[in-house]
Specification:
Blueprint: H1 5-15, H2 22-32, E1 39-43, H3 49-56, E2 60-64, H4 68-78, E3 84-85, E4 99-105, H5 114-123, E5 125-136, H6 144-149, H7 157-165, E6 169-177, H8 179-192, H9 208-225, E7 235-242
Parallel strand pairs: 1-2, 1-4, 2-3, 4-5
Antiparallel strand pairs: 5-7, 6-7
């Protein structure tokens, strides 16, 4: 079961349709660039942003989300025809179909037994299918915000590669992402012991100064962060193939 659901729900609700959320909009676009095949499963799909993006790419897309309020939000944003089941990650093993691409964005760290879910999704993957994972990087950054949002851990690149290869996956590509977020996160969480403010990602903030900052950050993520692996950052993105 995913921990920290109440805080996750609050973030998704305040962000809304991603029009102002430069972080998740660009992350979803980067993940979508690695889609494979015609069918997709998004485990822990939140408000359905990636499921909708997959539909736009002519994929048959299914989302799993344990929070009923987030499913309602997804239907409000994208329509009642968006396909999302009220299930948690552990329940994915009950699905009676396989997929070409399976995505877990900011999900694996919420699961106490991450090895178990890797074994499950291996069985749900078609031959030559891909899994795309996004996880928080560097255990040394683990702090109060991680605890509040329900993270059991953060991941090192080395440990993540070992965990994936030991569970039947071949690494296609792995990279760090969000270099700009690394330094503020480290300063606030590890030095100041204060929560890092993320309210400027919300759609309700129309301050002209904030709008300029958000536009600048969106430009950075779109044209630089998503195209250059700076070899460290706040997150790890890995694409793997079933052995």
């Amino acid at each position: 079961m995913i921990r920290g659901q109440r805080m996750i729900e609050k973030v998704y609700t305040h962000v809304g349709d991603l029009s102002s959320d430069f972080r998740n909009r660009n992350l979803n676009n980067l993940v979508a660039s690695n889609f494979y095949g015609k069918t997709l499963l998004d485990i822990g799909c939140g408000a359905g942003h990636l499921v909708n993006l997959a539909r736009k790419n002519d994929m048959l897309a299914l989302g799993l989300e344990p929070n009923k309020n987030l499913i309602s939000l997804a239907k409000k944003i994208y329509g009642d025809d968006i396909s999302i089941l009220n299930m948690n990650a552990e329940q994915a093993k009950s699905l009676r179909r396989k997929f070409d691409t399976i995505v877990l964005i900011d999900v694996l760290e919420h699961l106490e037994n991450d090895t178990s879910i890797l074994k499950t999704i291996n069985k749900l993957l078609n031959k030559n299918g891909r899994i795309i994972l996004v996880v928080p990087a560097y255990q040394l950054l683990y702090g109060n915000r991680d605890k509040k949002i329900g993270h059991y851990r953060r991941y090192s690149k080395k440990d993540l590669i070992i965990k994936l290869t030991n569970n039947g996956f071949k690494i296609i590509k792995i990279r760090y992402w969000n270099i700009l977020g690394f330094f503020p996160y480290f300063i606030f969480e590890k030095i100041l012991k204060r929560n890092l403010l993320t309210e400027f990602r919300e759609n309700k903030n129309n301050n002209i100064g904030i709008q300029i900052v958000k536009s600048s950050l969106n430009f950075w993520f779109k044209h630089f962060e998503n195209n250059i692996n700076f070899r460290f950052g706040l997150s790890l993105i890995v694409t793997v193939e079933k052995e």
